[in-house]
Amino acid sequence: MDDKLTIPLQPGKKPVMMRTEEEKKALIQRLRRVEGQVRGIQKMIEEDRYCVDILVQISAINAGLKRAGFHILEDHTKGCVSSAVEEGDGESAIEELMKVFEQFSKS
Question: Taking 70 as the threshold, does the pLDDT of residue 5 lie above it?
């Protein structure tokens, strides 16, 4: 199975519903927490810490990223996909969403 990103990035495409400042703040806060955990793991490795302790932290990072991803996936489904269905372009939006689910479930 190929682990490469199979969904092409679309940097010019904007979401139908923009995130509120509160939503942005919460997502950024979660990602900063993950970023701090990654730095913590780097330090743990430098200090030759116990492997299980490092693995527990890696698991916490994965969980944090999954939560952020599911939140964004929910926003996309409720906003972009729902809007595409209403505008008659539901088939391609749902096809894209299914690819996203497939890609997201690989991680």
Answer: no
Residue with token string 């890696």: 58
Let me know the angle formed at the C-alpha of 18 by 10 and 89, rounded to the nearest 5 degrees: 55
Band the pLDDT of 103: cuts 50, 70, 90.
confident
Comparing CA positions, the residue from 1, 23, 4, 3 lying closest to residue 71 is 23
| N residues, the chain | 107
Q: Are 92 and 99 in contact (CB under 8 A)?
A: no
* 85 in Cβ contact with 93 (< 8 Å): yes
Q: How far apart are CA 77 and CA 57, in angstroms?
A: 30
pLDDT tens profile 47-90? 999 999 999 999 999 999 999 999 999 999 999 899 999 999 89
What Å distances lie between residue 98 and 15, 26, 49, 68, CA to CA?
17, 26, 40, 18
